[in-house]
Input
Amino acid sequence: MTAHLDLPIDRITISQHEVARYSRHLIMPEVGMDGQKRLKAASVLLIGAGGLGSPLALYLAAAGIGRMGLVDFDIVDFSNLQRQVIHGTPDVGRTKLESARDRLNAINPEVKVDLYSTRLTAANAIDICKPYDIVIDGTDNFPTRYLVNDVCVLLKKPNVYGSIFRFDGQASVFHPPHGPCYRCLYPEPPPPGEVPSCAEGGVLGILPGLIGCIQATEAVKLILGKGEPLIGRLILYDALAMSFREFKVRRNPKCPLCGDQPTIAQLIDYEQFCGMRGQEEPAAAATDGEATVEDLKRRLDRGEDLFILDVRNPEEIQICRIPGSTVLPLPELPQRFGELDKAREMIVHCKSGMRSQKAIAFLKQQGFTKLKNLKGGILAWADRVDPGMPKY
Amino acid sequence: MNVRLFARARELAGADTIEVNLPAGATVHDLRRRIGEEYPRLAALLERSALAVNDQFAEDAQMLPPGAEVALLPPVSGGQSA
Output
């Protein structure tokens, strides 16, 4: 079951400075001088310099990986600092790539850092991933996750997988034919909106630290060729229960990508595969059912009789609220919609407009007609009407 | 039969485990259908979730052995901040 990486080390040298730096590795038989040379000869690509990417990049740089590629297009935001520990408060507003590069150079200037300031797409994924020995998935969305999986299978590269949500994390190593790929576990993505992202659902800041460290450990083990790689096993971590569970996963012979008769031989349109594009269309078509925050403010100022329905969760209401709104969290709507008055015009809002759209779809089925979705949600209200309102 | 829930499934059901009544000789497919009937909140996620039997990912055609430990493992995203 070993998936040995071909890493020529005859031309790799370890300097006196490096011996001092890596001495705690060098004295272990599992690493030793040859292992440290393998680390230096190795190249890894991190998809995402965020929650999982932070511990991954920090520890892999400290461990002496020779070359590390980072793919990210995002800017450091205050809301990242709770978990993305590679970035600091002074980095807010910088690109994550530049912020990460500076930190990695400070930790270990021996590591060569390649920066890819782009979103990973079906058009660029092969070129970006090809030069690296291992790809590490630290992404936050299903289209990119399936893309990373598929490109790794097509290029026959190990994919070190990690994923987090609130207090739960998953990790595995996908490396067909030695074990399954992500599609063997989850042949198809969940319907859009069924599995909230960290931005929607929240995440314990420490969680990506732990899952990212599992991924970093697996990457180092693959490079050293030591231990039992997490191939064919999925680790589930529950921080609230503080428990780890392990599930065995076999390669699915019927997998469309890595199975015995694969039907996918090239990268596809992942946004469409994950139903993202189909989602945008009804939203665009529903413009006559929308209100802007400026409309809402104007009508409130005129003293119009408007019913503002806030479908966010109680924790979010504690952060900020549009004055005069009525709170009814989306999960409770199916049980409590009877409390609402069908005759009154209702402006429905959430944080950014997705959940309110779902609430409207549900209420329409129940016979409500006078509904408008507040475009951009309370975030747009904070941006354009009440700049003193805290944003989250 | 008790089904242990993880991640989003646990939240939607509001419980760590759910109980499902199944006749002897039922398959993973039967279990999946029954969970959807008895817990409609899980229905949409269920189709795209994995079911593990005795700590091993299971195919729909597989029979459920007596006293099997079953887990419902929905896909999880998240990692890099959106």
